[in-house]
Write a structure and sequence with these properties.
homodimer; 464 residues; Rossmann fold; 2 domains; 8-stranded mixed β-sheet; 5-stranded mixed β-sheet; 17 helices
C-alpha cells in the first residue's frame, strides 16, 4: 500500500486552520448581512457550456472537466464510433465534447452568479445584492500561495446604476479590514479615466494596451512602463501625457481637480471624475470615523479584467511587515448577464482574496488568541467514582456553555496530560479523590502553571 | 443562445435557503464544539486511488472522475498510443486509468477522514474528535430527495475504545434534534447482538444475510423478512429464534434483561448487551432532562454498512406529519484507517442527513420566522436632501447593528415599495420632507400595516 496523499494544489484544513478561516468568513458574513447583502450558493459542478468561452482561451484550458459517467455501458457500435471521434476532439484541443465531458468544476463565482440571475430573473427583487463565499477550482500550476482549490468571496449588486453602490462597497471593504485588523490602502480609479488617457494620447483604440502597461507600474516602475508603452506603439507625446496624469499629487480632492483641468476636453474623462466624486461623497456620508484604511484615487490602477466599465477598486495591505499583491478588488461592469441572454443589467462588485487575507493575518499576527482552540477545558479521568464525579462536572460545564471534554479512558496521568497539552487548551481540571470528597475541582492553568482547588461554580466563572 | 441551466441533481441555494441551512449548520457546529469536537475540511478532489475500491463495485461506478488536464498537449507518438490503450480501459469498465483521470470528487466524508488521520498521525492528539460538514458527489440517478451534490455532516472519535464516546454521540444527537425542534427516536443496537443472533440460529456465517434481511423490517414487515430469511437459507428454527429475539418488549432495561436470558450461551451476545448497558449508563449521567428524543434499544436495527463492529445507532423522525427514512446514523467501527496502513485504531461516529433534516424541518414548520430574512429594514429613497437625510439614518441604524438597506435610486414610490415587499422585510422606513424637517422617521410595519413617525432612537429600539 502506497502512502496516502492529496492532489497537488489542494489542502486539508486542520482544526486550527478551519477555525481561523471561519473567523474570517464570519466577520465578512456579518458585514455583508449588515449592509443588506444576501447569501447565494451555487453547485460545484456547472454544465461545461456555461463555463467555456467565458475566461478566454487560457481559462478554457484550466477548467477542471468531469468525465461523463457510464461510458463503459456504451456498447452499440455506432455510438462507440461516435465516442471515438469525440475523444479525438478532446485530444486535439481543449475542446468540450459533451459525449466525453459535459460538466466542469466552478472556475469563479461571477459566471455562476450571472447564470443564476438570468435563470431566476422573475423571482428576484432588483437591485439584487448577493454575497457568495465558495471554493473554485483551476488546473493552474501549483506554487507558493497559488492553489488548485481556493476560496473566493464576492459581493455584487446588479440592477442599479446608482453610485451609492460603489460607496457601500467601499464601506464594506473598510469595515471588513478594520475588523480583521489588516491595515489597507483602497485604491480607486475609473475605466473612463483610462479611456480618457488613451484619448489624450490621440490613440483611443489603445486603451487596453495602456491599461495593461500601467497595471505593471508597481512591479516594473515608470521606466519599465515607458518601455512597454513604446513597444505597444504609444508615441513620445502620448507617454509624456500619461506621465503628467499619473503624477498628479495631493489628497483625493486635489488629484481630481488637477485631473479635471488636464481632461477638460474629454467627455469620458469628465464623466469618470464626476463618478469618482459622487462615489466618494456618498462614501463620506456613510464612513465611520474609526475606520483606518485610506482611500486613494490612483490613476495608474488598471485591473486586468476587461469587463469593467466604470469605477474600479483594489485593496493592498499597508503594513511594512507584509509583501503581498492585491488582497481584494472589483469594479462596475455592464451587461455581465448578457452572456446568458439578459441584456442591460449593470452591476458592481468586490471580491476578497480569502487565502491571501489569511496569509497576511498570520504574518501580522492578528488572529485573536482564542480563535484556533475550541475546547476551553479538559477534565482528566481518574476512573471509578472519580469518573462519575467527572461526568457530573462535565455536564455542569457544558450546561454553562463551556466547551469541555472528559478524557474517555482512565489512562495514565502522563498520557492524559500529554493529550491535554497537545490539544492546546488553557485549563486542565483534575477531579481526584480529594476533590470529589470535598465537592470541589482542581483547576490547572497551563499558561501560568498555577493550580488551585475551587468550587464548581467558581470554576465555571473562571472559564466563562 | 440556449437557456442556461445547471447539471441534473445539483441545486442553486437561494438566499432564504442558504440562511435556513446555515441555521442548521450553526446549531450543529455549536454542539460539536461544546462537546470538544474539532472541525476538519478536506479538499473536494481526492486522488482517485484514495477512493476506488472503498465503496464497493457500485460505488466505484458512481464516483465522479475528473478528466486530466492537458491531454491535448500529448504529441509524442508512443505516449499517444499509451493514452489510446488507457482510454480503452476507461470504456471497457469503470476502471481508473491514471493517464486519463487521476482525481475524483469526494464521495463521502469517512474515507477522506481516514486518509487525513493516517497522513497526520504524528501531529494529532488521540483520541481525535473531529466534525466535518461538506458536500459530497455521487453520479446516482437523481430523484426526489436524492441529489448528485449533497451535504454530509459527520462527527467521529478515533483512538479510543471507551463507551463514553458512544454516550457522548447519543448526547450530541439528543442536543441537536432538541435544538432543531425535530422529534426523534434514536434506535440503538450492537453488531455483536446481530452476530449472536446468527450464532443462535446455528449459522454464524450468515450474520450479513440476517442483517440485510432485518434491515428491511420497517419496509416489508415480518412476513417479508421471513420470506427473505428463508431465501437466504435460514432454517425455520433459526427464523423462530430471530422472531423471539426481535419481539422482546418493555423499556430498555427490560429488553436488555430478556436478551441476556435468551443469549446466555453467546459470549458475543453478552458482550453486546454489556456494551449497550455501559453506553446507556454513561448517557444517563450526561443527559439533560429537557431532551425529548427517546432512545430505544432495537434489536432489528441493522444499518447497511458492513464496517460497523460494535454499537450502532439510527435516528428517525417521530412526527406523524413526516414520512422520511433515517435522518442520521452511525456506529463503532474498527480499523478504518487500516485501509491506508494505520492498523488498530478503533473509531465511533455519527452522521447527520442535512438535506433530509432540512426537508423534515420545512414540513414541520420549525424554522424560526426571522431566519430566512436577513435585512431588517429598508429605507426608501426620496432623492436630494431627503437622500442625504436617509444616509444619516442608514449609518445610525447600521452602527446599532441593524441590517439595513437604502434603496440606491430615487425611483418611483411604487417601485421602491414593490422591491421592499419582494425582499420580505418587516419594516419600511420613509425619510420624506416632513421627517427630515422634524428630525424623525416614519416606520411602516408590513405585517400590521401600521405606520408611525418616531425619533431615530425609538426606531432603533423598535428594530433591535
Amino acid at each position: 500500500m502506497s502512502k496516502p496523499s492529496i492532489p497537488s494544489g489542494t489542502r486539508d484544513f486542520s482544526p486550527a486552520v478551519v477555525r481561523k478561516r471561519q473567523y474570517i468568513f464570519n466577520i465578512l458574513r456579518n458585514i455583508f448581512e449588515l449592509y443588506g447583502f444576501q447569501p447565494l450558493e451555487t453547485p460545484a459542478m456547472e454544465n461545461l457550456v456555461t463555463l467555456t468561452g467565458k475566461y478566454g482561451e487560457e481559462g478554457d484550458r484550466l477548467i477542471f472537466k468531469i468525465l461523463n459517467n457510464g461510458l463503459h455501458t456504451i456498447t452499440k457500435e455506432s455510438e462507440k464510433e461516435k465516442l471515438a471521434t469525440e475523444w479525438e476532439k478532446v485530444l486535439s484541443k481543449a475542446y468540450s465534447s459533451p459525449t466525453v465531458t459535459e460538466r466542469a468544476l466552478r472556475y469563479d463565482l461571477t459566471i455562476p452568479f450571472a447564470r443564476y440571475v438570468v435563470m431566476n430573473q422573475n423571482d428576484l427583487a432588483f437591485p439584487f445584492r448577493r454575497y457568495q463565499m465558495q471554493p473554485v477550482w483551476r488546473a493552474d500550476r501549483p506554487q507558493a500561495g497559488r492553489y488548485r482549490e481556493f476560496w473566493q468571496c464576492d459581493a455584487d449588486v446588479v440592477g442599479s446604476t446608482s453610485l451609492m453602490n460603489e460607496a457601500e462597497l467601499l464601506c464594506i471593504y473598510q469595515a471588513a479590514f478594520y475588523e480583521l485588523k489588516v491595515p489597507v490602502t483602497i485604491k480607486v480609479n475609473s475605466r473612463k479615466l483610462l479611456a480618457a488617457l488613451a484619448e489624450l494620447c490621440g490613440m483611443p483604440e489603445k486603451m487596453m494596451d495602456i491599461t495593461i502597461a500601467l497595471d505593471k507600474l508597481d512591479k516594473i516602475g515608470w521606466d519599465g512602463v515607458t518601455k512597454e508603452l513604446t513597444e505597444r506603439g504609444i508615441s513620445e507625446t502620448g507617454i509624456s501625457q500619461i506621465q503628467n496624469i499619473i503624477n498628479v499629487t495631493g489628497d483625493n480632492d486635489a488629484k481630481l481637480n488637477q485631473l479635471e483641468a488636464l481632461m477638460t476636453n474629454s467627455p469620458a474623462g469628465l464623466e469618470g471624475i464626476k463618478e469618482l466624486r459622487t462615489s466618494l461623497s456618498y462614501y463620506g456620508s456613510l464612513a465611520k470615523t474609526e475606520w483606518t484604511g485610506s482611500i486613494d484615487v490612483d490613476i495608474s490602477l488598471a485591473r486586468g479584467l476587461n469587463y469593467y466599465t466604470g469605477v474600479i477598486v483594489e485593496v493592498v495591505c499597508d503594513s511594512e511587515k507584509v509583501r503581498m499583491g492585491s488582497i481584494g478588488g472589483g469594479g462596475r461592469y455592464d451587461d455581465l448577464t448578457g452572456l446568458f441572454g439578459l441584456k442591460g443589467l449593470s452591476g458592481v462588485g468586490v471580491s476578497f482574496g480569502i487565502d491571501r487575507i489569511y496569509d497576511v493575518m498570520e504574518q501580522l499576527g492578528v488572529f485573536p488568541d482564542q480563535v484556533a482552540t475550541g475546547t476551553k477545558a479538559i477534565l482528566l479521568n481518574f476512573g471509578g467514582a472519580n469518573e462519575e464525579y467527572a461526568l457530573q462536572i462535565l455536564k455542569q460545564l457544558r450546561d454553562a456553555g463551556i466547551a469541555t471534554e472528559l478524557y474517555p479512558d482512565s489512562s495514565k496521568f502522563d498520557k492524559q496530560m500529554k493529550y491535554a497539552n497537545k490539544r492546546g487548551v488553557t485549563f486542565v481540571l483534575l477531579p481526584g479523590d480529594e476533590e470529589r470528597e470535598k465537592g470541589l475541582i482542581s483547576v490547572k492553568n497551563f499558561s501560568t502553571g498555577e493550580q488551585k482547588m475551587v468550587s464548581v461554580a467558581d470554576c465555571i466563572h473562571m472559564l466563562q
